[in-house]
Amino acid sequence: MHAVEEDAFPPAVDVTIVGFGPVGKLLAIHLGRRGHQVLVVDRNTAGYPLPRAVTHCSDFARILQSVGLSPDTVPAITQPYDDMYVWRDGEGRTLVEVDWSGRGESGWYNTYFFHQPSLEDAFDDLIARMPNVTVRRGWEAVALDQDADAVTLTVRGDASGTERTVRSAWLVGADGANSRVRRWAGLDWHDEGYFYDWLVVDVKPRPELRFPHIAAQSCDARRPSTMVPGGPGRRRWEFMRLPEESRESLNSAETAWKLLAPYGLTPATAELERHSVYTFQACWATEWRAGRVLLAGDAAHLMPPFAGQGLGAGARDAMNLGWKLDAVLRGLAGERILDTYGSERLRHAQAFVEFSMDLGRIICLTDPEAAAARDARMTADWNMGMKPPAPPRPGLGPGLHEGPAGGSLARQGRVRRGSGDPVMFDDAFDGPAAVVARHAASLTALPQDLHRRLDRLGVSRVALHGVGDADVSVVEDVDGTYASWLDELAADVVLIRPDFHVYGTGAAGRAAELAAGFVDRLAAPRPLPVH
User: Fold this and answer.
1) Which of 45, 83, 424, 470 sits a CA distance of 20 to 30 A from 168?
2) pLDDT exceeding 70 applies to what percent of the chain?
3) CATH 3.40.30.10 boundaries in the chain
4) C-beta neighbour count of 47 within 10 angstroms
5) Which CATH superfamily is domain 414-523 in?
6) Yes or no: is domain 12-79+108-188+284-358 CATH 3.40.47.10?
7) H helix intervals, 236-338
């Protein structure tokens, strides 16, 4: 990324990240923008050029917004899918339609399809402009040691065999499912014993084919399969390996074209970008921190793709961990706050792992009798007007939040400051962290010292009505998003953390107590409850 000598490494950094996939990149961007010295090492000499994940949700869109890549500004990378996800039986009859339309709590569409290599290129461009972030490709992590003050990582150059050591205050393993960092740190890996092999095929239909922009799930026992957009100008199919097939026979261009033929796809009508057999698994690390070492992304959790949340879970890891590491490095939080990273994120990740497995148990049926019984049950439910189960909306596990709304996802709506144009809240205030109140009087009464402490954490003070001052902004709630949300919360004030989760809520007179509680708990974290 940066013009440095081939073997040049900074002698010491604030954070070392092992793994330069999308999760490592997001974390590096957030830490780099906050001014920290970051080193990222990856054993691969170049980025993976082909798509892996293809779908993301409203929450992920808000994470993209946080690094200046709002979906509406990068239409060549990601596009909304404002439609149904149709499940069909082996005869093409509808079993259920899952509503993937509309917008979510984060203010963006519920569903997008995107091209991962293009997104990662955009991340790379952002990182290349950060002189405090050093990226070293082609260097393999070979040993790790830590003491009370720092982590020492030994890396080896693939080309030269040269070894280097780097010390950092903290190290994050974002090095994938087979994480060496996880193993070196002694963190346990829970495996649900869930394994299915699927052939993933990515194609670029030629423009004259005019393939419909549709997402569909075939529950055909003869060959369960998935068909979805693959980002602008692309399509993806996934085909389950049947019991009598080998991985080798399935993973060939000849087989891919044979399976695509019923959809009108041939070498004359489409370009085959890739075919690869993946084993879908369900696993998670039971702890995400060991001293100064932490895990993120696939190193911390693996899930089947049926809910489309694998990469999104890793991006949420980066958001949660990024602001907490920043607070610790700047002396605004005690180190114990990093214990809340894993305790909060694990519950959320587990919920989506389990939901993905539930979907897989419905989809991955190859026994004709079992599939017929499933189809009859789903058809009866559909005819009775029963809606399919919604994806889980889990809150955070135990950690830095309080009250019944604590740990839930915060809303984002459009606001207007003064006579300006309406903009999304995070863009208006350079991030989501804020104390939002119905009336400015709840916030102008805060002690000056508390205002300053909130400023250091990047927490804005925003009111919907009243008269503000130098510390409190009054905005127009353009679509009534915040007024209706506060009504739902039965609250006058809500404190939103930098990772757009709720810290807590309260009545108008509790604003000072709420804000002081947040900054005090950061500085002197409480032990986590036994659970």
Assistant:
1) 45
2) 97
3) 414-523
4) 17
5) Glutaredoxin (3.40.30.10)
6) no
7) 247-250, 253-260, 310-329
